[in-house]
Amino acid sequence: MAEIIREEHIVLKNHVTDWEESIQLASEPLLRDGYFSQNYMDAMINSVKEMGPYIVIAPEIAIAHARPDENVQQVGLSLLKLENHINFSEDGHYASLIFVLSAIDNEAHLEILRNLATILSDKEKVNALIDATNAKQIINIFKEND
């Protein structure tokens, strides 16, 4: 897992204006490094607009993604960690850990999701991620799972 999320793919911010900005900021490292194009980022935002806040998988945790297509060149994972969570809806869908997953097909990203699910199902690890103050601490939390 530690090879999948790299320190340079972690963004820490106090707050964002809205959920769209959270997806944009969480996407920036992978977009910058050529994992996917702007169209993939737009597709992630449009998915939430069309289907609602389905990417919020638990309190404080969102995993933004879109259907694999020609706009994705590489499997990757990035993270935006916020000090103040952002609401994805008015009825309780909020997150301070916004992951972005880029998938090239329907299979290649499944191992990342399995590992991420293992970490995110551990309340202590989630709390440690929420409490982390820098990218190195976050990387160390992921390394504990290797």
Automatic annotation (TrEMBL):
Keywords recorded for this protein, A-Z: Cytoplasm, Kinase, Phosphoprotein, Phosphotransferase system, Pyruvate, Transferase, Transport
Subcellular location: Cytoplasm
Residues annotated as signal peptide: none
Cellular-component GO terms for this entry: cytoplasm
Main subcellular localisation: cytoplasm
Xref: CDD domains: PTS_IIA_fru
Pfam family, one: PTS_EIIA_2
GO molecular function, one term: kinase activity
PTS EIIA type-2 domain location: 3-145
One GO biological process term: phosphoenolpyruvate-dependent sugar phosphotransferase system
Assembly behavior: Homodimer or homotrimer. Seems to be a monomer when not phosphorylated.
Summary of the function given for this chain in its UniProt record: The phosphoenolpyruvate-dependent sugar phosphotransferase system (sugar PTS), a major carbohydrate active transport system, catalyzes the phosphorylation of incoming sugar substrates concomitantly with their translocation across the cell membrane. The enzyme II UlaABC PTS system is involved in ascorbate transport.
Name recorded for this polypeptide: Ascorbate-specific PTS system EIIA component
